[in-house]
Structures are given as structure tokens and as C-alpha cells.
Amino acid sequence: MASLAQTVPCVLEEADQLMLGEQGRKLREASLPDIPDELSRHSCRVQASLKNITHFRVEYLDSYLHNGTQHYQEPKDIASLGQMTFSSSNDSEGESCGGGAQFRIHIAGDYLDFSVGWAGRAQVLPKATVTFDSPKSAYHDAASVDESWCRDWATSARAWEAKDGDGKPVPFTIDVSAESGPQVVYTIEQVVAKEKPVGDEGGGRDSALILGL
User: Fold this and answer.
1) If exposure means fewest CB atoms within 10 Å of the residue's CB, which of 23, 104, 163, 183 is most exposed?
2) For residues 179 and 130, what is the distance between their CA atoms, to the nearest angstrom?
């Protein structure tokens, strides 16, 4: 894996923002697809969209599905500044519609793996989490939080380096977030690093940070 602040060949359009210019804004505000009628007929279902607000391709790696859960629409790769929707259902009585999916962000010659998790029950809004651990761990995280859970996020422990419009170096990290609701939304972003993360990747609340990047 790369050392801290590896230079990658991309330009951040707005180095003082947490998104990639106008294209990033449009993607963040883009509407979510309607839940298909066929999926709505299942007693327990979850539809999720993943927004990739980075310069990098995101590869789908693997899934973990909880007892009886099946994909209605499977996860797939996501292009730079792209959006992908996937869904699952579970008609087994007493079981949640839950699982996790693992993805890989290809950052020049480097990469970063992360997982998203979801857990929903009939007549209850699904809960969503993100982690740099396995998809099974992501599911168990989602299944263990209470019904008031709204948002989760994680920040990469390493930073990479891009350039701004004037060619000056701009260190950035990768943030992954999850928003629970009628439809789950996961967002991947390049975030200008104002602090230097150290140690393993972890949740946004818990990462050890030192100043001076």
C-alpha cells in the first residue's frame, strides 16, 4: 500500500470544498430512483444508492447477505462521479433484510477497500453503516444500532496528494458516509485533509489525528 501523501494524477477543482466542483454538487443533489413495484411487494426490502464523488473508479468486490436475504438488484462497479443503486429483500418471517457489500477504490496505483452495511425490518426504516472492515462486520454494525440511527461515516487513515488549479499540492483523504432513511444513501468523497490521520482506518468520530499535514 502507498505511503502517506502519495501523489495521484488528478486536479481538485475547488480545493477549499468537500466536493469536486459543479459535477460533485450535481451528483450530491441527484434524485434517487424510485423503488420498483416488484420490490415493494416484498414485506422486507432495502434499496440503497452509492454516490461516488471522487476522481476514481470504485470496484464491487463481494457481498454478505443475512439469513434469507437476496439481492433484487446486485451491486456493481461505479465510475468516477457516478451513482449506482442496489437492493435486497427478505420474506423470511422474523428475519431482517440485511447484508453488507465490499468495494475497492482504485487510487492511481494504490487502492482502498471499504464496506457498507444495511439492516431493515418490515414497517421499519432501514439502518446503514460504513466500515473499513469486512461486509459481514458492516452488516452486524447496522443490525446492532438502535432505530434512531441516522448517519455513519469513516475517514481513511492515509492521505494522498492531488493538485489544485494552480498546480499546488493538495493532500486529501477518502470519506465514506451512510445515511439511513426510506432509501439508504452511501457517499464516497475526496476531502481536503486539514489534519493528518494516523493508525488504522476508522470511524470519523474515533480516528486518531495529529496536526501538521
Assistant:
1) 23
2) 10
Residues 116-145 have pLDDT tens digits of: 999 998 888 899 999 999 999 999 999 998
Three-state DSSP state, 213: coil
Nine-digit cell string for 204: 470519523
Task: State residue 24 phi and psi, 5-degree precision.
Answer: -65, -40
Q: Which domains does the chain have, with CATH numbers?
A: 10-29+41-192 (2.60.270.50)
Q: What is the pTM of this model?
A: 0.83
Give the single-character DSSP code of 78.
B
| Nearest one of 50, 76, 54, 53 to 63, comparing CA atoms | 76
Q: Which three cell numbers stand for residue 9?
A: 494524477
> Could you report the per-residue pLDDT of 154-206, keeping only the tens digit for each?
999 999 988 777 788 888 899 999 999 899 999 999 888 865 444 344 443 22
| CB environment 31-70: b (16+ within 10 A), e (fewer) | ebeebeeebeebebbbbbbbbbbbbbebebeebbbbebbe
Three-point CA angle 194, 195, 197, nearest 5° = 135
CB under 8 Å to 205, separation ≥6 — which residues?
A: none
User: What sections of 30-185 are H helices per DSSP?
Assistant: 37-40, 135-144
